[in-house]
Amino acid sequence: MTITLRNEHKKDYRVVEEITREAFWNLQVPGCDEHYLVHIMRNHPDFIKDLDFVAIMEDKIVGNIMYAKSSLVNEEGLPLKTTTFGPVSVLPELQRKGIGSKLIQHTIEKAKEMGYKAIIIYGHPHNYCKHGFVGSKSLNVSDNEGRFPYSLLVLELEKGCLKGHNWKYISSVVYYGITEEAFKEFDAGFATKEKCFMPSQEEFNIACRAFVE
Ligand SMILES: CC(C)(COP(=O)(O)OP(=O)(O)OC[C@H]1O[C@@H](n2cnc3c(N)ncnc32)[C@H](O)[C@@H]1OP(=O)(O)O)[C@@H](O)C(=O)NCCC(=O)NCCS
Fold this sequence. Notes:
Elements (H helix, E strand, L loop, with lengths): L2 E5 L5 H12 L9 H8 L11 E5 L2 E15 L4 E12 L8 H15 L4 E5 L2 H4 L5 E2 L5 E2 L9 E5 L10 E4 L9 H8 L11 H10 L5
């Protein structure tokens, strides 16, 4: 199985949105809106075009990863340039074959080359600790309210750069930019799919309400 990676092009937009929808459908909530997030991210000032990659297998796009600018601010108010990825998606039938890891590892290296000091994400630790991410508490990175969410994970790209300070994560507003009306109109342009309960939704609920002491 040969997988190549390249930046996303305009002609890929719809396919990437469909893959994202397939990957997230019923995973965290009944249905999903990550395909709309992908759609609005590309036109947002925080979007990092150079870190927008697709994975190709036999001339077909099978996965995607997108990043936005973010920052950390320490107790003295000094900011640090960081980045955040998500969504990251692989077509369900091709998951667990190393494609997601390839997208993540490749873009970690790229982000490092681009001078970002750290990658901060909300995600399932199982998916990301294997790529070097640690819980935010370990590096004194809190959310905006000073808490350490279970799902808030940090990867230093410059080893030791976070040491000796307390940091607050400032997310891009793009991740909170979905409006119900606009989303519904957008989603109506996709094939009908059944919304249902999946146990992964309860796992997601638990993770969202969990904080590290
Ligand atoms: C999360 C996601 C992007 C990961 O992509 P992926 O291609 O499935 O990930 P990988 O194949 O690199 O790794 C997944 C697992 O497959 C295993 N794996 C990798 N290559 C393998 C192979 N050739 N044979 C068997 N297993 C393999 C990995 O070791 C890993 O195992 P683990 O889960 O026990 O640690 C993908 O599963 C996805 O789109 N999920 C739905 C959307 C989602 O959850 N996005 C992230 C939100 S936090």
